């Protein structure tokens, strides 16, 4: 296993521990990493470089971007409001990762299941 895939596996295990067997959660490989879906909607994605992609909702986009380590997701030329990247350094501590997951969960749980 390469160092990058080991880092992603470690990050995925940390996320699984925080989500603690939530029955609404499924896992799917997408965007070049492992993504956790809540009721069929993207909650958080793990990247091989240790970053996470979070769904925060368009209304929460600016507040999320104001937090340390957060940058806007851009897909091709398109700004993906409501989705942000969080740098690995910003989620080294479990409490910080848990806080980001809680932020995303508040938004995603309010969406109708797919």
Secondary-structure element series? HEEEEHEEH
Number of helices in the DSSP assignment: 3
N- to C-terminal separation? 34 Å
State the strand order across the main sheet. 1-2-3-4-6-5
Q: Over the alpha carbons, how many angstroms does the gyration radius reach?
A: 13 Å
The main sheet comes to: 6 strands, antiparallel
Coarse structural class: alpha+beta
- What's the β-strand tally? 6
Task: Name the helicity range.
Answer: 25-40%
Q: Beta-strand percentage?
A: 25-35%
- What is the residue-mean pLDDT, rounded to a whole number? 93
- Judging from the principal axes of the Cα atoms, what is the shape? globular
Point out poorly predicted stretches. Answer: none
Would you kindly provide a written description of the structure presented here, covering whatever features stand out?
It is a single chain. About 30% of the residues lie in helices and about 30% in strands. The protein has helices at about 5-20, 60-65, 95-110, and strands at about 25-30, 35-40, 40-45, 50-55, 70-75, 80-85. A hairpin with a 2-residue loop joins strand 5 and strand 6. Helix 1 crosses helix 3. The longest helix has 17 residues, at about 5-20.
